[in-house]
């Protein structure tokens, strides 16, 4: 085993070799240089083989240099970032300023308590011994803040396997970590800064992104480094899955994203056309519900424009696009109010005409977890179709699957008819559909490569987390409805089988849309009236029972 140092050019050879030798000697390991260019005394290793070689040889530490000007988006200049993120073994990326002193120098290690920061503290202790200084910034809440910070550092050192008395520590009270760390580095006491990465993204965001520009000048004499521990088996599996998605899932290109944003933003706003389509869809759905016609209700789903602003809401959450979110949510809320008012008006008319609650109305008053699943998949499918114009023909089918307008019309009609339990169930169904469709759209857009700027996405992340929690919360009551229905049907079927005389068999008992049971009987003759009465008794008084008989010749 050997400490391995990657050398990319002659300028890196001397400082990285000296630093690597210092670390290797402190760890009682040999030093091995991997050169990406032919350099005397080094092994030539092609860049594309570095990760494979690191996985095969599994060095205790792989060191790669970070150039001062490596801040471009050119993938070839992102070599150190790729090695840091993808290497299986422990990796440290360093920016070497001046050579480290031979003896008696200090290394500053910011300690947050994470696994990687403990690795940084452990490595610094091996290199500098008592010259290691654990650094922490804590808010100045009360007179005990500094003591609390000291106890925290003691625990961190203990987890790292280092006696606390063998290292130094520095606790500063304040709120601005970067500014306070910069002031500490300006003291001139330290020759090196080692940061433990909380994740692969830490390299970009904190050490080699904006942080070096704020902490270190290019002429600084401080060598800075970030260390990441070796990846666990679980981490490797997650990385493999992430790479598989990135390779296999088609990513939206720039022109496709532009077309998508333009279409969604234009169709996710409240307008006369939107209101007209929403009103007509509600009237069609209401008439279909009152005359108990499923075909008419399906027609209303095709007319309703509500799907697009829901997809727009999902896009807004992924992008962190607050103006789009306001427009889309505003369109959904206004559309809901319009449909609810029209539905209530149709319910008053139905009450005047003495029309009752139909099976189409009843079936929307008892949602279960399957409705949640349908809406979630529909949101993914709808956003997928919108993002790819050649698949727009499938959008109509998705609109039918994720019924949005019929539940609103049901709420209004049943509220007017006094069927409050059905109205509550329909309202729950609509809310379930809305949450699941938005969440599904957001998931699809994220996987398709759409991202927002980090600084504008805090509210969006909270919104997405809220949707996930709401969906998780809905699973319990919706699942209980499904399981209770299934268990009741199974119990009734068992009782019915026990009731029937010998020679008469029940092939199936199916719960009908709108309530009641359809029973398929196998018998050599038409069942007698007494048998039918027994089946009705088991089903319950007032429960609709439909019996079909398959005559079997003996």
Shape: elongated
Mean pLDDT: 78
- Largest beta-sheet details: 10 strands, mixed
- Unreliable stretches: 68-72, 199-219
Total count of strands: 13
Rg from C-alpha positions? 34 Å
Count of domains: 3
Briefly note the CATH topology name of the largest domain. Rossmann fold
**What is the level 1 CATH name of the largest domain?**
Alpha Beta
Share of residues in strands: 5-15%
The CATH architecture of the largest domain: 3-Layer(aba) Sandwich
Helix coverage percent: 55-70%
- Determine the structural class based on helices, strands and strand pairing: alpha/beta
End-to-end separation: 83 Å
Number of helices: 21
What strand line-up does the widest sheet have? Answer: 3-2-1-4-5-10-9-6-7-8
Account of the protein in words:
By secondary structure, this protein is α/β, with parallel strands linked by helices. The chain has three domains: 239 residues, Rossmann fold (3-Layer(aba) Sandwich), CATH 3.40.50.12370; 234 residues; 52 residues, no CATH class. Helices cover 56% and strands 14% of the residues. A ten-stranded mixed beta sheet has the order 3-2-1-4-5-10-9-6-7-8, sandwiched between helices. A three-stranded mixed beta sheet has the order 11-12-13, with helices on one face. The radius of gyration is 34 Å and the shape is elongated. The chain starts with a strand and ends with a strand. About 5% of the residues have low confidence.
């Amino acid at each position: 085993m050997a400490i391995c140092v990657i050398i990319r050019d002659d300028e890196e050879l001397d400082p990285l070799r000296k630093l690597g030798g210092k670390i290797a000697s402190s760890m009682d390991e040999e030093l091995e240089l991997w050169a990406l260019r032919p350099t005397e005394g080094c092994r030539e290793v092609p860049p594309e083989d570095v990760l494979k070689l690191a996985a095969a040889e599994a060095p205790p530490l792989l060191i790669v240099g970070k150039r001062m000007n490596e801040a471009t988006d050119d993938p070839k200049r992102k070599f150190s970032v790729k090695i840091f993120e993808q290497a299986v073994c422990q990796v440290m990326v360093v920016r070497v300023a001046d050579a480290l002193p031979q003896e008696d120098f200090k290394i500053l290690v910011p300690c947050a308590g994470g696994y990687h920061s403990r690795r940084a503290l452990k490595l610094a202790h091996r290199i500098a011994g008592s010259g290691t200084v654990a650094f922490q910034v804590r808010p100045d809440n009360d007179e005990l803040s500094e003591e609390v910070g000291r106890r925290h550092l003691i625990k961190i050192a203990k987890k790292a396997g280092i006696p606390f008395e063998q290292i130094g520590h520095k606790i500063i009270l304040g709120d601005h970590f970067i500014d306070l760390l910069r002031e500490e580095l300006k003291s001139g006491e330290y020759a090196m800064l080692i940061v433990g990465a909380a994740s692969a993204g830490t390299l970009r965001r904190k050490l080699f992104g904006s942080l070096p520009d704020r902490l270190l000048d290019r002429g600084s004499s401080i060598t800075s480094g970030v260390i990441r521990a070796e990846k666990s088996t679980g981490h490797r599996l997650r990385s493999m899955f992430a790479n598989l998605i990135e390779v296999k899932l088609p990513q939206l290109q720039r022109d496709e994203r532009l077309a998508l944003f333009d279409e969604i933003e234009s169709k996710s706003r409240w307008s006369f056309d939107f209101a007209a389509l929403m009103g007509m869809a509600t009237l069609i759905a209401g008439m279909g519900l009152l005359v108990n016609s499923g075909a008419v209700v399906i027609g209303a789903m095709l007319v309703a424009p509500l799907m697009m602003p829901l997809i727009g809401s999902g896009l807004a959450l992924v992008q962190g696009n607050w103006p789009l979110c306001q427009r889309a949510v505003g369109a959904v809320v206004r559309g809901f109010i319009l449909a609810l008012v029209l539905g209530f008006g149709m319910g008053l008319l139905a009450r005047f005409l003495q029309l009752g609650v139909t099976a189409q109305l009843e079936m929307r008053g008892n949602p279960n977890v399957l409705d949640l699943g349908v809406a979630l998949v529909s949101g993914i499918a709808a956003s997928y179709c919108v993002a790819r114009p050649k698949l727009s023909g499938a959008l109509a089918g998705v609109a039918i699957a994720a019924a949005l307008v019929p539940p609103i019309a049901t709420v209004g009609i049943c509220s007017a008819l006094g069927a409050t339990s059905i109205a509550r169930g329909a309202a729950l169904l609509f809310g379930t559909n809305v949450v699941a469709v938005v969440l599904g759209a957001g998931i699809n857009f994220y996987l398709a490569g759409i991202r927002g700027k980090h600084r504008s996405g805090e509210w969006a992340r909270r919104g997405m987390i809220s949707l996930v929690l709401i969906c998780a919360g809905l699973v319990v009551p919706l699942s209980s409805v499904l399981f209770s229905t299934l268990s009741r049907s199974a119990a009734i079927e068992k009782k019915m089988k026990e009731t029937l005389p010998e020679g008469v068999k029940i092939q199936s008992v199916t719960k009908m849309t709108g309530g009641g049971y359809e029973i398929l009987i196998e018998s050599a003759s038409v069942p007698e009236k007494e048998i039918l009465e027994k089946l009705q008794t088991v089903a319950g008084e007032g429960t609709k029972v439909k019996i079909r008989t398959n005559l079997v010749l003996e």
